[in-house]
Amino acid sequence: MSSVPGVILAGGLATRMGGGDKGLKVVAGKRLLDHVVARLVPQCGPLAINANGDPARFAEFGLPVLADGLPDYPGPLAGVLAGLDWAAGLGADSIVTVAADTPFFPADLVARLKAAAGPSGLALAASPDAGGKLWQHPTFGLWAVALRDDLREALEGGLRKIVLWTERHGAGIAEFSSDPFDPFFNINTPEDIGEAERIVGAA
């Protein structure tokens, strides 16, 4: 498959937002998932949404909804694994993941992740904070289908921290600028919606 499949990670519990699906919250007149899909479509092949519970709430997006294959909400890596299992069925050798609550991720995310990939085929996005410290954004990554059984074994063994697994496999890092704002700004609280609308207005 020439164009890498994309998986939108929407499986979080949104506790700081009062529960519900953050991806369905509205920013500047559009749901977060609308913003994310529009940004990802030009960069990827087929798309899917990783989410648990009733998939019908995402029906109007017309995308496959992939539930975690592991119980008890083990975190974003379970969504990555669900995406890798889906992509294996498509004959793809990798996927790109993005978070459903992060509407401004870079328009060249996929190309830059591919360019940064380590020998294992893994890469994560990163950007500097206000003090210049580089932060990895592990829900924004390029993931190799060949590693899905290794990931499944790690998750079943209790691993939850993404970077522990990606560092084990020598993931590359694609660094993005935080000027004029961090493109990986994510929406966790109602106040963050106001900040996102300010960014939209300034863009």
TrEMBL record:
<keyword id="KW-0501">Molybdenum cofactor biosynthesis</keyword>
<dbReference type="InterPro" id="IPR025877">
    <property type="entry name" value="MobA-like_NTP_Trfase"/>
</dbReference>
<keyword id="KW-0342">GTP-binding</keyword>
<dbReference type="Pfam" id="PF12804">
    <property type="entry name" value="NTP_transf_3"/>
</dbReference>
<keyword id="KW-0460">Magnesium</keyword>
<dbReference type="InterPro" id="IPR029044">
    <property type="entry name" value="Nucleotide-diphossugar_trans"/>
</dbReference>
<dbReference type="GO" id="GO:0061603">
    <property type="term" value="F:molybdenum cofactor guanylyltransferase activity"/>
</dbReference>
<feature type="binding site">
    <location>
        <position position="68"/>
    </location>
    <ligand>
        <name>GTP</name>
    </ligand>
</feature>
<keyword id="KW-0963">Cytoplasm</keyword>
<feature type="binding site">
    <location>
        <begin position="9"/>
        <end position="11"/>
    </location>
    <ligand>
        <name>GTP</name>
    </ligand>
</feature>
<keyword id="KW-0808">Transferase</keyword>
<feature type="binding site">
    <location>
        <position position="101"/>
    </location>
    <ligand>
        <name>Mg(2+)</name>
    </ligand>
</feature>
<keyword id="KW-0547">Nucleotide-binding</keyword>
<feature type="binding site">
    <location>
        <position position="50"/>
    </location>
    <ligand>
        <name>GTP</name>
    </ligand>
</feature>
<comment type="subunit">
    <text>Monomer.</text>
</comment>
<protein>
    <recommendedName>
        <fullName>Molybdenum cofactor guanylyltransferase</fullName>
        <ecNumber>2.7.7.77</ecNumber>
    </recommendedName>
</protein>
<feature type="binding site">
    <location>
        <position position="22"/>
    </location>
    <ligand>
        <name>GTP</name>
    </ligand>
</feature>
<keyword id="KW-0479">Metal-binding</keyword>
<feature type="domain" description="MobA-like NTP transferase">
    <location>
        <begin position="6"/>
        <end position="164"/>
    </location>
</feature>
<dbReference type="InterPro" id="IPR013482">
    <property type="entry name" value="Molybde_CF_guanTrfase"/>
</dbReference>
<keyword id="KW-0548">Nucleotidyltransferase</keyword>
<feature type="binding site">
    <location>
        <position position="101"/>
    </location>
    <ligand>
        <name>GTP</name>
    </ligand>
</feature>
<comment type="similarity">
    <text>Belongs to the MobA family.</text>
</comment>
<comment type="function">
    <text>Transfers a GMP moiety from GTP to Mo-molybdopterin (Mo-MPT) cofactor (Moco or molybdenum cofactor) to form Mo-molybdopterin guanine dinucleotide (Mo-MGD) cofactor.</text>
</comment>
